Amino acid sequence: MEVIHPKGWAKSVGYSNAIKADDGAMLFLAGQIGWDENQVFHSEDLVPQFEQALKNILALVREAGGGPEHICRITAFCIDRDEYLRVRRDLGKIWKELMGSHFPAMSMIFVADLLDHPAKIELEATAMVPK
Questions:
Q1: For residue 22, pLDDT beyond 90
Q2: Which of 3, 10, 54, 109 has its CA 20 to 30 A from that of 41?
């Protein structure tokens, strides 16, 4: 994969504006929330839910034969902008631990609610895994 960044654009912080994936199989992941493999929440807090949702994304990508570096895009849906801004550094630490320095194309969207309570964040992703 190649990060696309036009000359003269300011550096993206914590995401890429575009990723070019040349070869592999497309993997489309449904939104993952902060529950475990048995659909049980262990916390109502954003930070542990984000960590679990990202671990769920990575488990699916690994099951398909890929790794964090094969994730091209993540869209995050969060119900609490103020809490997100307050814990952003903690989320960054979790990101670095699980994703390293790989930053796919990303969007953060704040929504009124999510289907499964007490979910606070949902991560949806696309990956290009090796054939």
A1: no
A2: 109
